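Residues determine shape. Next comes a sample protein:
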Amino acid sequence: MHVFVSQKPLSPVRWHQAFPDAITVRTPDEASAVARGKGCVWLDFTCLKPVDRQLWLEQAKALKCPVVVLSNVPNDDEAVHVFSAGACGYCHVLAAAQQLQEVALVVEHGGYWVGSSFIEKVLQLSADKLSQVPAPEECPYSELLTEREMMVAREVARGATNKEIASSLEITERTVKAHLASIFAKTGARDRIQLVLRLNHIASSTV
């Protein structure tokens, strides 16, 4: 079930092209009748005032299901804000039907969707910040992670793949995956992007 929350008088055709069974409502409260605990909720931020956007995010969070924010002017500051408020996805309101389907696939499986440019900036910021922290004990998760796990986490923050991490640390990719599974469990992160955000305090603990 896909529920679009929008103030538009008519739903864009691409929404229904992506999800033929999609429903459009006017407020998050109306979405609660059909989306609580199941499906995906899409918040159309077009023309909303900042105070209303915050209210919608708070109301949508109570629905206990993946929330994706659609923005007519996507930007990094808003991306950080919506993720810290509990959203799982953030994309342009004019996204094509195929892209909406891709977003849904990611967030419904526990992942996060955001533009590649934002990811690159997060990873670059992570690399810059981590390069200024020579001692592992200075990391906010140093008491939870082993020294080897900290090394793996740092490589992830720099954007390294499992293969690259294995080569850099002279371990197998299987061992890298095992370390990542432990890191995710200890930090509460569900994927690499969330791990980077947590390691660098870019988003709050609600992400």
About this structure: The chain has two domains: 2-114, 118-199. The domain at 2-114 is CATH 3.40.50.2300 (Rossmann fold). The chain has ten helices and five strands.
